[in-house]
Amino acid sequence: MNLPPKVTDRAFARLSEIGAAAQGMALRVAVEGGGCSGFQYDIKLDTPAEDDIVLEGAGEKVLVDTVSLPFLTGATIDFTEELIGARFVIDNPNATSSCGCGTSFSI
Length: 107
Fold this sequence. Notes:
Elements: E1 6-7, H1 9-17, E2 26-33, E3 39-46, E4 53-57, E5 60-64, E6 76-82, E7 85-91, E8 97-98, E9 104-106
């Protein structure tokens, strides 16, 4: 069974803090070819497209396009704050390896 990606309360809270929905925007999480491990995440604020999968919570939205969805099955989209910075992160059970920066992975 293919589980859709899950978005944590922290990620939705951060989107609310930056006012994404108030600006008519949502967080887009996409998977593209490239990066040092074969695939890379593209995470940005964007507007919804007709064929997007929309994950909603706390009045905010996270978008995943249908091409990226199989690569993100069962993944968790979170937000983290560390000494080196704050960012959205993806815990992807499909990734067999990833690079040190966390934005590139292989399946």
